[in-house]
Specification:
The chain contains six helices and five strands. With 203 residues, the protein is an alpha/beta fold. The chain has a single domain, classed as 3-Layer(aba) Sandwich (Uracil-DNA Glycosylase, subunit E). The longest helix is centred in the C-terminal third of the chain and has 22 residues, at 172-193. It starts with 16 loop residues before the first strand and ends in a 10-residue tail after the last helix.
């Protein structure tokens, strides 16, 4: 039996900020709303800490989608969902590419290793979280004053996955990296909200 597939996304079409996770979870496939489970509650606490407001406000400000578009099923062993295969990622790539082309965001928040790898490349999380990159993996300058978006380039902020199945944040040093990443996100949101680039209705 072929499962019924429905869109799982939220946010304004004209948002300058896009958040991309791995794939819809078991709850999301029924609700049609990304990050609507326990991991989502943690994610929205992070976004609130970065100045994006509560969950309702953040969903109005950020377009949220995922690398793959269908629930991949539960993990074969242990908690969490199965990581989508390389074939599944490639099958969904045109859909994600179309979303990026149509929205043309200024900032992409890549949540979890699959999304981070899609836009930055595979590296240890310790080398990624707490930094900002251009799409493709070049680290962005920390001198943001007077920053303008170079034509055809996308700014990427990596975040760890908020799922309880991930143990990366168990280390104190990793939590410090997350705090630094949320500080970057706060600065970037303020920058996007300024008249130097374009208005962003989230602060």
């Amino acid at each position: 039996m072929i499962p019924t597939v429905r869109p799982v996304l939220s946010g304004p079409v004209l948002s300058e900020v896009m958040l991309i996770g791995q794939a819809p979870g078991r709850l999301e496939q029924h609700s049609g709303l990304p990050f609507s489970g326990r991991a989502g509650r943690q994610l929205f606490r992070w976004l609130a800490e970065a100045g994006l407001g509560d969950e309702t406000t953040a969903r109005r400000a950020v377009y949220i989608t995922s690398v793959t578009k269908c629930f991949p099923g539960a993990a074969g062993a242990g908690p969490g969902d199965r990581r989508p295969s390389a074939t599944e990622v490639e099958l969904c790539r045109p859909h994600l590419d179309d979303q990026l082309r149509l929205l043309s965001p200024l900032l992409l928040i890549a949540v979890g290793q699959l999304a981070i790898g899609r836009f930055i490349g595979a590296r240890p999380m310790e080398q990624l979280i707490g930094r900002v990159f251009w799409e493709g993996g070049e680290e962005a300058s920390e001198e943001l004053a007077g920053w303008r978006r170079p034509p055809g380039r996308l700014l990427v902020l990596p975040l760890p996955h908020p799922s309880g199945a991930s143990h990366w944040l168990n280390q104190t040093s990793h939590r410090a990296q997350l705090a630094k990443a949320l500080g970057w996100l706060s600065r970037l949101v303020e920058l996007l909200a300024s008249s130097r680039i374009a208005p962003l209705d989230c602060v």
